[in-house]
Amino acid sequence: MTVSPRLRRLSGQAVLGLVCLISLLPVWMVLKTAVTLPADIFATADKLWPASITFGNFLRVLGLPSEVAPPANAGAAISFGLAPPTTVIYTALLVSGQLFFSSLAAYAFARLRFPGRDAIFYSFIAATMIPSIVLFIPNFILIRQLGLLNTFAGMVAPNILMLPFAVFFLRQFFLTTPKELEEAARLDGLNWFRIYWHVALPLQRGPMATLAILLSIQAWNDFFWPFLTGQDESVQVMAVALAQYQSQTGQGQPDWTGLMAAVMLSIIPVLILLVFFGRRIVESLQTSGMK
Amino acid sequence: MSGQIDAPPRRRAGRMLPRMTALRRREALTGYLFILPAGIGLLAFFVLPTLRAAQISLTHWNLMRPAKWAGFENYARLWADAQFWDSMWITLCYVLYNIPVQTALGLLIAVLADRLAKSVALRAVIIAPYLISNVVAGLVWLLMLDPLIGMTNSFLGLLGLAPQGFLSSPDQSLISVAAISIWRHAGFTALLFYAGLQAIPKDLYEAARLDGASEAAMFRLITLPLLRPVLVFVLVTSIVGSFQVFDVIAVTTQGGPAGSTRAVLWYIYENAFQFSRMGYASAMSMVLFAILVLVTLAQMRLLRGDRSDLG
Q1: What is the dihedral of CA B274, A155, A284, B298, to 10 degrees?
Q2: Domain ranges of chain A
Q3: A53–chain B nearest CA distance, Å
Q4: Which whole number is the average pLDDT over A269-285?
Q5: Residue A103 needs a FRET pair 20 to 30 A away by CA distance; which of A151, A202, A216, B224 works?
Q6: Which among B250, B106, B272, B170 has a CA at the least distance from the CA of A135?
Q7: Confidence class for position B3, pLDDT limits 50, 70, 90
Q8: Are A108 and A124 in contact (CB under 8 A)?
């Protein structure tokens, strides 16, 4: 069996091309549907290009005045209401808390000596093994008893103080940074918090930025917990709003163009991050996913 | 024997605090202070809830009236609940559809990318679906697989095949949900394998090529064994993850049609949050936890994940 190297190369490239096509084509179809007029949806269903382009679906999903009316034959039209700003607030709150508390803990695990340090660190890692549903039931009951259902506090509480992945990720970077600078600062009489804040943390700008990007994407995509604790329209994140719309539609035909405009709105920030920070994201996922 | 070796450091640790110099004591106190917020998070939202879930599983509790002690009634009920075992079976089928295809595809893409295209842009495109949430991936494919306006049926039509129901057909819904998950995860799996491939010394392949080994032989004798630690990591995390499939089902089929995608997490969710059976749902979640621990341990053992063949 001798296949010429050139032919083999060519077929390999064809497979990779196909993989890229399958990765991106569905996203393209979402975009195409999002800019299609509701009336054209069936006529252009199997086309790669819309009959005409409109941004009206985006406007009406955001609750802004729009010349595009929702389809009459579909069930309820989708409206995002406050979901986009809510998602931004939720993500910002969660990620800033996670970055601060996790870097603080990671610094202690990497640099400070105290009894039980490593055992505590490994119990952090072990916590990731517990299936989320085991935790969600008691955590939901706790948040409900505290009267924090449908508040940002309740939605961010379980993960804002500690994210094992973030602690692990940052500890590695603290460990591999020389500690001369910190020791010098120590001799100058700075206390530990000042050393962490003014000396150690600024050296980790790169890893912190990478982590911020990864955590933001993760928080942006959060679903199950916000779905349990943030159903109310005033605190609905986009993923929850999408799921709720979909469950109300049931078996009927959804408001496709509106739904896809909403989907596109929730993907765009992630795609922008991927375009600008592609290398950073790829390389960090590649190495940190291995641990 | 090991007890004797362990004993002295433990004793020393116990006496460490009083004996430490003032400086060391300050350092230790600062250390505890620094991990305090994260420690509170760990205790309040991970450790205590796990214990509490075990406790709740021994009660009947609908959140309206106080919890009532039930002993092991919930576990007995679960044992006899055909729907629970049906949901476990559905979950197992889902895992079996999902994992082999996802892993094989991931390997194929990784090997091809390693040989033919090392560009970051390619890897960025390949992981794009992974960066999109499950919810959105579900909705994207709800459009693509829609029997009326979906691209997939148009494509089948081009090939001369009949249109399919996909998510709305009881026979195809579970496979469709698995396919959505494969779409979302294959690229990420490939990225992890790709990173593993970079760690394999290239001179091994050159030596094998000089000896006249075929591509297939090199893959079987060099690539696969040396990739094993990554393979174990990928398999363990993706299997444990797929047992907990929920988001895609929540936005596409909601367990239907006719219960064909009622995976175990969906069933637990229904019991806890739609029927307010907190005790019963907790019992099921504890059983799922136990099963996942067993699955993980079995895999580590079977695949000897702790040892590498390199060096």
Answers
A1: -40
A2: 26-78+254-288, 84-229
A3: 18
A4: 91
A5: A151
A6: B272
A7: very low
A8: no
Q: What share of chain B is helix, strand, coil (3-state, %, to 5)?
A: 75, 0, 25
Contacts of B285 in chain A (CB under 8 A): 131, 133-134, 137
Mapping DSSP onto H, E and C, the string for A121-174 reads HHHHHHHHHCCHHHHHHHHHHHHHHCCCCCCHHHHHHHHHCCCHHHHHHHHHHH
CB contact under 8 A, A115 and B13: yes
Residues 6 or more apart in contact with residue B201 via CB below 8 angstroms: none
Mean pLDDT of chain A: 89
**Residue located via tokens 């219960």:** B259
B216 pLDDT band (50/70/90 cuts)? confident
Mean pLDDT of B233-239: 90
CATH architecture assigned to A84-229: Orthogonal Bundle (1.10)
Residues 129 through 168 of chain A touching chain B, CB cutoff 8 Å: 129-142, 144, 157-162, 167
Spans of all domains in chain B:
2-56, 75-303
Nearest-by-CA chain B residue for A138? B49
Lowest mean pLDDT among A17-21, B9-13, B95-99, B143-147: B9-13
Nearest to A204 by CA among A166, A168, A162, A170: A170
> In whole angstroms, what is the distance from residue B306 CA to residue B300 CA?
7
Give pLDDT tens digits for B90-137. 999 999 999 999 999 999 999 999 988 888 899 999 999 999 999 999
Look up residue A92 and give its two tokens.
């910002």
The architecture CATH gives domain B75-303: Orthogonal Bundle (1.10)
Write out residues 49-108 of A within 8 Å (CB-CB) of B. Answer: 101-102, 104-105, 107-108
Name the burial class of residue A62, with classes exposed (0-12), middle (13-18) and buried (19+) by CB atoms within 10 angstroms of its CB: middle
Nearest to B253 by CA among B185, B166, B179, B184: B166
